[in-house]
Amino acid sequence: MENVATDTGKLLIRHLPDGPLTGLVSAISAYEERGEAMHDGVEAASLVVPLIFSFRGPFAIALDRRPSRDDRYFSFTAGLHPGHVRMDSRGDAECLQIDFTPLGARLFFAMPLLELTSRMIRLDDLGDVAVRELADRLAEASGWHERIRLAERFVIARIAGSDRAIAPETLRAYREIAKRRGDLRMADIARDLGWSRKRLVTEFREQIGMAPKTFAKVVRFGHATDLANRPGISGWAEIAAACGYADQAHMTREFVEFSGAPPRRWQREIGPRETGTFLQESDFGAM
């Protein structure tokens, strides 16, 4: 399935993989700027681990702050981050982006996800020969659709041959957090698994890249932003109650932490133009 959006300033092709990549890759997207630069683009905290292959101009990207001249990135990957990302472009960016779920990233990358958390790593610093060779093949491909097909085939083959198994207990905790949309106590999960809270934190961080409590907060934040875009919701107080926040002030603090803005400002200025994505329930349930 592909969604295509185009205007005079940019092109976006978003391919939604299924089959063997269901629950492992949320999207493979082609993005092309045609003279329209991005200024202060924002991506709020999400559960996506992106791998970006750039073919022309760079992005200026920084975590939780405006980027400087030293924050230029061409091809790179980035881990989960409990905060927001800000970015600029020059209007000449062309890139292919693979959005892994945490489960897919665990199987794909040759390093522990914890080493990627709250970091952006340039492709040349990743030290992954196969991914570097893929970047060269993508650059030589004849167009976006061929690039998407090449990337999808590569990811399928690499994940199929991965030996980086996810422990059943970690997977169970991951699914339970998703099912409850982040509104649960970590002590209850640990008890149900027969683990100590310390072991739950250690195993979850090592395999998913983020402590389970932080992961749950990001899931809950994603649920709140989803509700904010649905018709029939009376206001932010109702959203706070529905998502299990202690009160509206509690929700506001986490919105500022994860998006850089309080809820109403997020809804007015950031949400409509945000480029990031959240996992859907089907992404959790497939594994």
Taking pLDDT < 50 over at least 5 consecutive residues as the criterion, the unreliable ranges are 275-287
| Count of folded domains | 2
What is the tally of helical segments?
12
Q: How would you characterize the largest beta sheet? A: 7 strands, antiparallel
Return the string of H and E elements. EEEEEEEEEEHEHHHHHHHHHHH
Query: What integer value in Å does the Rg equal?
Result: 19 Å
Gross morphology is globular
**Number of E strands:** 11
Description:
This protein is of the alpha+beta class and 287 residues long. The protein has two domains: 2-160, Jelly Rolls; 168-285, Homeodomain-like (Arc Repressor Mutant, subunit A), CATH 1.10.10. The chain is built from twelve helices and eleven strands. It has helices spanning 102-108, 123-126, 129-140, 144-160, 168-179, 186-193, 197-208, 212-228, 236-243, 248-259, 263-270, 281-285, and strands spanning 2-6, 10-15, 25-33, 41-43, 49-54, 59-63, 72-73, 76-78, 85-89, 94-100, 120-122. A hairpin with a 3-residue loop joins strand 1 and strand 2 (10-15). The longest helix has 17 residues, at 144-160. The protein is globular and about 50 Å long.
Précis, in short:
With 287 residues, the protein is an alpha+beta fold. The protein has two domains: 2-160, Jelly Rolls, CATH 2.60.120.10; 168-285, Homeodomain-like (Arc Repressor Mutant, subunit A, Orthogonal Bundle).
